[in-house]
Amino acid sequence: VPDPVSIPGHQATQTRSEGHALWRKRHHLLDTKSLTIGEIDLLIAEARVCKRVHAMISAPPLVLNNKVVANLFYENSTRTRSSFEMAAKKLGAHVINLDINTSSVGKGETIQDTAKALVGLGVNVIVQRHPSSGSAQSIAQHLGDSVHVINAGDGWNEHPTQALLDLFTMQEVSPKLAGKKITLVGDIKHSRVARSNIWLLQKMGLDIRLCGPPTLVPAQFAEIGCSIYDNLEEAVAGADFIMALRLQLERQEQGLIPSIGEYKKLYRLDHKRIRAASPSVRILHPGPVNKGVEITDELVEDEKYSLVSTQVTNGVAVRMALLCLLLGESSKQLLTVTR
Ligand code: CP
């Protein structure tokens, strides 16, 4: 692992110890919008190491021994919650999965009070998913430096660890990402994954295209440099990456799309529709997939194109790296052991 930290195609921006100092100062991960390139470069470099550690047969060093990570999920999750649990346990931390349905939330306890109670119990990291935008920031402000808060998805706002694992996955197949073209297709309006990816991938120099029915692609994104399309074939022409986004049926207002059938006819990714993309195009989807709606099963399963299962696998490495960086010098020990 190089020191200073460098990603191919990027100028080295810092030494490793300067990068660690940036992360210690940050304390929480609430968004990708405020991340610096230095912080991103170090996290990706650390995730590469954590992926090797995760794959090791021998037990990794328990660098987070005695630390406690609490998963506080007010919305359903398979990948994010499980991968945070695996990441924390792999590093030796204890994990509390608070069951919101049987917690005091049912008696009207606020998110701030629930989080404060967890801090009182000795929790070091709170990983929170909540349907309200800004909720992770709200508990981070309320609790200050007494705990590290990680946003695991807040309303339509951000899902920073998803975007970081997407970046890591793309960078594994295409080390020089600056200048590459990515097309995000689907329900951009309701997607926290889209927002986190837009902020992150712009910083990394990718050319971002957004495609979907005009009712689901806010025109304001053109003002920050994204190209907007309502025609899928035009949007994927020459694309190096295409990311299909879940049609968020639970967040739809009435009338945004005429029907699921109409949506599939115009925007569902399949082998034919990606023909105009780069011959080496790779396809991503953050999951969960609405089966057969945003992308065909054949394309999800096609190993030549699909990175969907790699995204899930990489979620553990990226979250291991994040926990190490937020909790201090521990990642250094991991690096030493795996060198
Ligand atoms: N991508 C994602 O956040 O998936 P889960 O809802 O399963 O965590």
What features would you describe in this structure?
With 339 residues, the chain is an alpha/beta fold. It contains twelve helices and nine strands. It has helices at 16-26, 37-55, 79-90, 111-120, 135-143, 160-173, 192-203, 232-236, 260-267, 297-301, 308-326, 330-338; strands at 68-73, 94-98, 125-130, 148-154, 181-185, 207-211, 227-229, 241-244, 282-284. The chain has a five-stranded parallel beta sheet with strand order 7-6-5-8-9. The chain has a four-stranded parallel beta sheet with strand order 2-1-3-4, with helices on both faces. The radius of gyration is 20 Å and the shape is globular. Mean pLDDT is 91; it is low at 1-10. The structure holds phosphoric acid mono(formamide)ester. Phosphoric acid mono(formamide)ester is lined by residues 77-80, 153, 159, 162, 286-288.
Total number of strands: 9
Count, helices = 12
Range of helix content: 25-40%
pLDDT < 50 runs, ≥5 residues: 1-10
Mean pLDDT: 91
Structural shape? globular
Strand order of the largest sheet: 7-6-5-8-9
Span of the ends, CA to CA? 8 Å
Bound compounds, each kind once, are: phosphoric acid mono(formamide)ester
What is the H/E string? HHEHEHEHEHEHEEHEHEHHH
Biggest pleated sheet: 5 strands, parallel
